Every structure is written in structure tokens, then in C-alpha cells.
């Protein structure tokens, strides 16, 4: 029989996650934890589903990607705002999904919080030991924002020409990029760099 947590218990669990995050040097915003490590921005969103599961997704990207993204999209002032925008803003650079999963809830809140934070630490640490983020994206990324990420990685490596090639190919394939501002989409803006 699976345990169900009532609203009050769910609040206790989420509070435990925030406390655990704080102890490990992560910042928090509603249902999100995030941290800057070296040049990387690590973030995780989590949600209690059906009062019995904790669903989570752990991500990583270069911290610079958002600054490049906002500059390309003509929103450079976002760079001066809270880092939580990099984790939860409507307009933010996409990230590499490191791990997603779910855990059955128990009433051992601290234990569950520590488990989640341990995963975030472990996934990000292992990834950063093994890969350079730019190179990983160029060689392996195949998520739905693959082309946007590849543009950001190439620009981050000062290779604007390669970014423009990807943008042009994407536009030729009918994909202008999922993000729009000022009547132009992401790949349109890339071509104007």
C-alpha cells in the first residue's frame, strides 16, 4: 500500500528539501533548487504528484548560456536579475537533462530530502568530471532544444559561423526556434549576429 501525504505533510517534505538544499549550498525558489558550480548552472525542479510520488528532473547548462541567449533575444537586462530566472524563467536558455525520475513518498522527510539533494550533487558532479558542457552538446545532445543548445555552445566557443549554419539549416527545415521576441524567433536573431 502506497503512502499518501496530506497537504501539511507535503509542506513538511518541501521544507525539508529547502533546508537540505541550503545546507549543501543550493538556492531555492518554489519547487526549484539551483546552484552555480564553476562555470555550470545546475538546477532541479520537483513536484509532488497524487500525494504519493516526488517527481524530479535534474539539469545542467553553462552559466553563460543564459547571458548569450538573452543577448541574442534582445533581453540583455535579464542577466542582471536573480539567478532563479536561469532555472525557472519563461525565457531562458534550455539545459541538458541529466536525470529524471520519481520516488515514492514516505514520512521520513529529511531522508527523502537528502536523497534528492544527493542525486543532484552526484549527477552534476559525475557529468562535470566526464564532460565539457559545450562539447557534450555538440557531440551528444538530442533533446527537443538540441539546435538552440548547439547554437549557444558554438557561440560560447566563439564560433559564430557554425551557430549561423545551424540556425540557417533549422529555418530551412521550418524550425525558427521556439522562442520569439520582437517579431523574430531565436534562429532569425542568430542570423543577425
> Quick one: biggest sheet?
5 strands, antiparallel
Strand order of the largest sheet: 1-2-3-4-5
The total beta strand count reads 7
- Overall radius of gyration: 18 Å
Morphology: elongated
Count every helix, treating DSSP H or I runs of 4 or more residues as helices.
8
**End-to-end CA span:** 58 Å
User: Residue ranges: pLDDT <50 for 5 or more in a row?
Assistant: none
Helix/strand structural class: alpha+beta
Q: Estimate the mean pLDDT confidence.
A: 96
Output the helix-strand order: HEEEEHHEHHHHEEH
DSSP strand content: 15-25%
Task: Classify the helix fraction into a percent range.
Answer: 40-55%
Question: What does this 3D model show about the protein?
Answer:
- This protein is of the alpha+beta class and 193 residues long.
- Helix content is 48%, strand content 22%.
- The protein is built from 8 helices and 7 strands, in the order αββββααβααααββα.
- Strands 1-2-3-4-5 form a 5-stranded antiparallel sheet. A two-stranded antiparallel ribbon has the order 6-7.
- A hairpin with a 2-residue loop joins strand 6 and strand 7 (184-185).
Question: Which characteristics define this entry?
Answer:
193 residues; alpha+beta; five-stranded antiparallel sheet; two-stranded antiparallel ribbon
Q: Short summary of the structure?
A:
With 193 residues, this protein is of the alpha+beta class. The chain is built from eight helices and seven strands; from the N terminus they run αββββααβααααββα.
What's the helix and strand layout?
Elements: H1 7-23, E1 27-29, E2 32-37, E3 40-49, E4 53-62, H2 63-72, H3 84-88, E5 96-104, H4 109-130, H5 133-140, H6 146-156, H7 160-172, E6 180-181, E7 184-185, H8 186-191
Antiparallel strand pairs: 1-2, 2-3, 3-4, 4-5, 6-7
Helix pairs in contact: 1-4, 2-6, 5-6, 6-7
